[in-house]
Amino acid sequence: MTLADQPRTTFGNDDAKRVRADFPALDQEVNGHALVYLDSGATSQKPRAVLDVERHYYERQNAAVHRGAHTLAALATESYEQARHTVATFVGVDDDEIVWTSNATEAINLVAYGLSNASLGRGGPEADALRLTADSEIVITEGEHHSNLVPWQELAARTGATLRAIPLQDDGTLSLDDAERLVTDRTAIVAVTHVSNVTGVINPIAELVEIAHRHGALLLLDACQSAPHMPLDLHALDVDFAVFSGHKMLAPTGIGALYGRRALLNALPPFLTGGSMITTVTLEESGYLPAPQRFEAGTQRISQAIALAAATDYLGAIGMHDVAAWEHTLGERLLAGLLEIDGVRVLGPQTPEGRAGLVAFDLDGVHAHDVGQFLDDRGIAARVGHHCAQPLHRRFGVTASTRASTYVYNTFEDVDAFVDGVRDIRSFFGVV
């Protein structure tokens, strides 16, 4: 029996150690040291329960979904659609509001290109309200991942719309006064991350939704760093679209999801076209199915979707409130330890309030890549670079940083090993 099967009311270091035992990848040595994995913000490890579900699908149910009448096809289709129900329930939405994608990047592009198609006159009368013109504006923030920036640059280029960015304050947080100033009646869509993958800041989504909707704008939420780490109810948040990736939440690569309000999805012209998303096809024109199938052209990510559902079951059994609380505890310990080290400059808030369980920092006199190599020599996996957020790093006056990101399988010992490693780096490179 794994920890996820056991009832409990609190979660502590011993619980995290038992969770860790469910993850085969964590039971190994790197460079002669027990692996300390603090790069879950980039991609998470996978528990046996998830690996076993995907393997079972390939061994016992492998078939094309929504295409065959034989037994295996029926079983595969049932598992595939049950996975959609499971994931939809996990994020508080209806089944037909979840579209499978390869990842969150594809999901954002789906929305951006769908809006572009609507702006070109594609889609029926329902798509009229989704059209952007040269008078339209798209609002993002200075802290977005490139995946929630570049697609909007492209949409602006295709439609003539103006792209605006809400600036960050010195501590990496957003000013709602700036949001009020930049979101206007010309704004078509606001695209914002829920949790920064660099600063760990948890953005005030409820307030941003209210501002956007007051001006008749849509709001797209990048939930890549929130869906894996905290309770998420997208209906309650009242967002119009949201995206997240399976590989960051214990599931395989190659699976992500787009949430969209039912009416919006059914009005949005499709991004990819082909088989499985049509009603009728002639040599001259085609008709498209309602959402979500209208956005799922071609052979789908069947095993990955089923495994993502297993991952949400695993997280749900632990309890997302416990996951969030434990990661906050780890993040607080991580932040406190790093702030005690000479030469460390933490990017983002200097206190744990309103922060997720990750910390990025610059180490005076040592390039982030050298920091990463030093830590790797001790078996510690951390992320180095600009984390696909160059404008945010530019805002802080650095080109790269080192990031440690925690998950439910991390322990106090992991955090302490990381802090001890960072403490030794400057003396090793002779810059003290």
From TrEMBL:
Indicate yes or no for the key word Zinc-finger: no
Which reaction does this enzyme catalyse, per its entry?
(sulfur carrier)-H + L-cysteine = (sulfur carrier)-SH + L-alanine
Keyword annotations:
Pyridoxal phosphate, Transferase
Q: Which cofactor does it need?
A: pyridoxal 5'-phosphate
> Domain Aminotransferase class V spans what residues?
36-418
GO terms (molecular function) for this protein are:
cysteine desulfurase activity; pyridoxal phosphate binding
One Pfam annotation, family name?
A: Aminotran_5
Q: Name one GO biological process term.
A: cysteine metabolic process
**Presence of the UniProt keyword Transferase in the record:** yes
InterPro entries documented for this protein: Aminotrans_V_dom, Aminotrans_V_PyrdxlP_BS, Cys_dSase_SufS, PyrdxlP-dep_Trfase, PyrdxlP-dep_Trfase_major, PyrdxlP-dep_Trfase_small
EC number(s) of the enzyme? 2.8.1.7
What's the family?
A: Belongs to the class-V pyridoxal-phosphate-dependent aminotransferase family. Csd subfamily.
- Job of this protein: Catalyzes the removal of elemental sulfur and selenium atoms from L-cysteine, L-cystine, L-selenocysteine, and L-selenocystine to produce L-alanine.
Q: Which NCBIfam families match?
A: sufS
Q: What is this protein called?
A: Cysteine desulfurase
Its taxonomic placement starts with: Bacteria, Bacillati, Actinomycetota, Actinomycetes, Micrococcales
